[in-house]
Amino acid sequence: MSEFWNKKINEIEPYVAGEQPKKGEKVIKLNTNENPYPPTPMARVILRTCDVAELRLYPNASSTELLEAVAEKEGVKPSQVFAGNGSDEVLALCFQTFFEKENETALPVLTPEFSYSFYPVFAKFYDVRTIKIPLKEDFRLDPDDYIGTPNCGIVIANPNAPTSRSIIVEDIKRICQGNPDSVVLIDEAYAAFSDPYETAVSILPECPNLVVVRTCSKSHSLAGLRVGYAIASEELIEGLNRAKDSFNSYPLDRLAQMIAAAAIRDTAYNRKCIDKIIATRKNTEAALKELGFTMPKSSSNFLFAKPPKGIDAETLYKNLKSKGILVRYFKTEGINDRLRITIGTDEEMEKFIAAVKEEVSNAKDS
Ligand code: PMP
Q1: Which of 186, 215, 252 to mutate to test ligand 1, by most ligand atoms within 8 A of the CB atom?
Q2: Is residue 230 in some structural domain?
Q3: Among the three residues 230, 247, 266, which one is the final residue of a domain in this structure?
């Protein structure tokens, strides 16, 4: 609290990101869904060969080269792409651009009960009312729950976080077509890890109210670079550009634009890393199930696992932490009985499973 802060800043409960270890601290970091593999080798080439003198100049305000790289890969026009400083910024701008401000007549935004915990913070920050729609058994999202409730917008992470489950693109189409007057925001931060791969970009021609948001943080191993983007109709993208140019016209620096474009163009390297993570995810899931854990089928680069009877999730989280293994635990009722575990390298996951095995056998002995 401070008398110098305005009412909103005094009242807001900011988003709390997963902890980042201190420099030099040796941990197995499975808590913030980063990619365990390095980014495209082109990143190093760009950093070695870039003209440092150019840093005195402002970057390209629209990230043109990056928009072209995304457009080419996704089969859309560059004017259907918008880039921002991480998908968090893109999502924040979407809230400002497409959703109604809170007043007596403003309709709410619909979002799943358990989802990315930044959505309610954006909503509060931009005075947008939200209604949380309960998930069904085993965190299943029922598209029918998003049809028929008056709203000014819908936000769904697909695959959802932290639940790891996804819905099929046909269901997204139903939600979009069932809400023709609202913008439907589909946050595909983890879509690259779905198997078989599906993206809502494929239904954009039939859904003029759809915005697909992506990030280079997870699929392209560039969380440290901060690059996210949205793909939508030209009309919706123009709205985002109006918001950007009323807030920060240069959201992406020169290096971020170049490296992200190169990473998106390096599809072969990207596929190799993603296939590896999917394979490791399957092995980790099997190993955890053998130890008595249960979890929904993951379409992401993490598992949302419930420990077997007799093992408390919070205690397990703390014990793993004391062994130098960070996973994510949410104290929120309804999901406080499980852990969100990012998929690391095979070696990291072997160490993780060995540590969990030890915990399970200690629990049995006590
Ligand atoms: N959406 C979801 C569902 C996420 O989990 C995250 C990562 N915390 C983001 C968006 C934001 O990613 P970034 O800002 O790194 O692009």
Answers
A1: 215
A2: yes
A3: 266
Contact assessment for residue 317 and residue 329, using Cβ atoms and an 8 Å cutoff: yes
What is the per-residue pLDDT across 307-357, written as a single tens digit (0 to 9) for each?
999 999 999 999 999 999 999 999 999 999 999 999 999 999 999 999 999
- Residue 16 within a domain: yes
pLDDT over 90 at 61, yes or no: yes
**In a domain? residue 2:** no
Reply yes or no on whether the pLDDT at 362 is more than 90: no
Out of 19, 66, 88, 188, mutate this one to test ligand 1's pocket (max ligand atoms within 8 Å of CB): namely 88
Q: Give the residue, out of 66, 89, 116, 216, with the most ligand 1 atoms within 8 A of its beta carbon, to mutate for a pocket test.
A: 116
Residues 6+ apart with CB under 8 A from 88: 118, 228
Beta carbon of 228 within 6 Å of any ligand 1 atom: yes
pLDDT for residue 303 is more than 80: yes
Nearest CA to ligand 1 atom 1: 189
Among candidate residues 266, 292, 327, the one where a domain is terminated: 266
pLDDT value at position 102? 72
Domain ranges, residue 154: 42-266
pLDDT recorded at residue 19: 84
CB 301 within 8 A of CB 166: no
The Cα–Cα gap between 164 and 157 comes to: 10
Mean per-residue pLDDT for 181-185? 97
Could you tell me if 262 and 131 lie in one domain?
A: yes
Angstrom distances, CA of residue 197 to CA of 45, 96, 166, 231, 271: 30, 30, 11, 17, 11
Is pTM, for the whole model, over 0.85? yes
Give the distance (Å) from ligand 1 centre to CA of residue 364.
37
Residue 1: inside a domain, yes or no? no
| pLDDT tens column, 124-157 | 999 999 999 999 999 999 999 999 999 999 999 9
CA distance 192 to 339: 22
The domain that holds 286 is classified in CATH as 3.90.1150.10
Atom of ligand 1 nearest to the CA of 157: 3
The atom number, within ligand 1, closest to the CA of 228 reads 16
Structure tokens at 321: 């932490």
